[in-house]
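Cross-posting from the modeling subforum.

Setting up a comparison between two proteins and wanted a second pair of eyes on the formatting. Protein 1 (sequence, then structure tokens):
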Amino acid sequence: MRIIRGLVILFLLCLLALTSIVVLMVETEPKVDVKAAEQVADADTVHDLLAQLESSVTDRHQAHTITINTQQLDAIVGFLQRATAGFRGKVSVTPDATRVQASIAIPVELFDGYLNIDATLLPANAFVLEQVKVGDLYIPGGMAVGLTEWLVNRWTQSNIATQAREQIEKVSMSNEEVMVSLRPMDGFLRQLNEVKNGLSVDQDDELRDMTAYYLQYIAWQDITLADTPQPAIDFIRLTMKRAAQRSSPEDAAEHNKAAILALAIFIGHHRVANFVGDVQPDAEKALKPLTPPLLRGRNDLARHFLISAALKILSEQGVTLAIGEFKELMDRAIGGSGYSFVDLSADMAGVEFAEVATSPKHAQEVQNMLSQMHDDSVIMPPIDGLAEGLSKTQFEDKFGAVDSNDYLDEVAKIKARLATIALYQLDN
């Protein structure tokens, strides 16, 4: 009896401690309140950051210093806000510290709760957090880093988190920039690849195998060898017709997912395969058509459409649209193609396409409709009258920010056009 009483008391003490921690961490109001539309205004500056990261990977045997300015940090946080409901964040940089703040809404009905996180990164010859504050709970920075490192290492059954931390040789700061000195990336990238391959065992092997099948199927069709650009709808029609032949009502949605992913890899970009698994028959030579397929007479729209459809399958809709929008905002930089509502239209159409094609309720009906299509209008709305090629100055003069009425009106115009497409009315 004494042992049972002791266990009950221990349980109650643990429950009390856990409740106290939750009470300390959860707050009723968000501490961060910033507009994502203002943060992503400088998305074009991220091009420079991506170039630095690409250089560190390409020249992996050399040390590199990555310089991140406040505009780039704001743009990245703004993207996260537009992609993730209930998230708000901001970063401030001084020579003495970089402060990262975030408010995350807790998705519980009938309860307005927020995790308000405040972390301080210090300049040092390593990655050093001074402290992490969650609500009223203070966590020493070393403990927070160590716990995160342990969890990631345990989950991946590797020491990848430790290696990632050790890649950072030095962190320094000014009023506008954070400079991160990295050791050569070769060893870390090789380890990361091993971790990715190890984790792929737990991924959807059936979806990967089906995607590999449809990728090879479309690659063997005569249309892929045409010496003039062919309509993307012909590739889609052939692949979806094959999906209809191979699937049943029970698994039609899964076959459609695989078919869309295969088309995104084949027509959109071969790197989409990185999110699916080993689907290329030859790892050294990715399958692709001889000439670039066209949607509404343009190859860029075919690629936007299919990559967005694939991202919808692999992620959430909000993330997919935020990626498309952020990419267009980046393109306003000098030398970029400019902001394009035409491209955004293809992104949005791709999301709608994936949504309805992978719905178990409509998967077979979609297969039948697509197996007979011969016109772009079945999947892609008209693009006439949509602004494109806008520089940053032109975009701001005409639309202001991405939360302005003029901008939202342009997006509403695209949505109205999508709503007239019979395929996308199936879920209504």
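Protein 2 (same layout):
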Amino acid sequence: MTFTSYFDGSSAAGSLPLPRLEGTGGRKTSALVRGTGSIGARHLRVLQQLGVDKLYAWPVRPGTSLGERPDIPATAELVEAYPDAPLDLVVVATDTRRHIGDTLEALGHAPGAVLLEKPVAPAAADARVLLDHPRADTISVSAPLRFHQGFAVAAELLPRLGRVTSAQLASQSWLPSWRPNRDFRSSYSARKEDGGVLRDLVHDIDYPTMLLGAPTELHSVLGSGILGIEAEESADILWDSPAAVHLRLDYVTPVKTRNIRVATDEGALVWDVVRNRVALEWPDAESGSTGSVEAVFGDDADVDTVLARQSLSILQRAGIDGGTTMDRFRPASLAEGVASVAICDAARTASASGKAEKVVW
């Protein structure tokens, strides 16, 4: 097979209809979202668009009204406790420091599945109680980048491109522009105990480990002082599994960049998340230049579509039969989510010590 025919032969590059929960045989589906901030509201909208029949919204603050929340579906029922009815899905979308307690409470009501927002916890050690829980296998950790069709194609093609020799990942943005109507210095991102670029951009730690394998030890340099916040503003992480892997994460760059370039002994693979494209490059012996071919996945630009793929995948894995199959995607398990937090922990330790530190969890 030639490089130019790789996309044609990819099972993950075919047509992908917009997610919709269908054909459940008349069975009514239900979901509860704990936390009604911006991400909780988005989950509620996505679940409604997906076709979940009954939605419950449970704010963190008692007495909260949803009457002036146009970002939350009017059909969502406001609750202040778990309903007596069984639930197919619970989404935990509260602050990071609440994740463990809120997830344990959710598990106590035995829903079909739990979707825990990232990161799992402020530190990997905090998550041991979840890992030891008898229902731990019902927990998935939100990792939307895994549900980009571009990533599914990249993950399928990479093993065909020879031996990996190096990889460079960049995820860079400008924190003050994340929430233009709110002072970024008062956001959770600015807090040292549960914020910082490592936790905020943990998605960009998850997907390279899925592609290349997780490190056992790493070097790291953390940066601060540009935004004037308590938490780290940038992180450069380096490990050597299976070859030299360098991650640059920051929110001090106004021009947004999010991509990975993996070099192999036959060519290179590039996934550009901002431009929704996957490119293959190889040396052209005849011309002495570089040959390339690319594919663009425009639907990946829609955040709600990507989250709907994740939700549908988790519901299907929990036994809900209906909708377009999500077999080309794989949700992040609890163990994988904790492993990503452990890499964050090791990066802080390595930056402080100035030497390689083991990833422990």
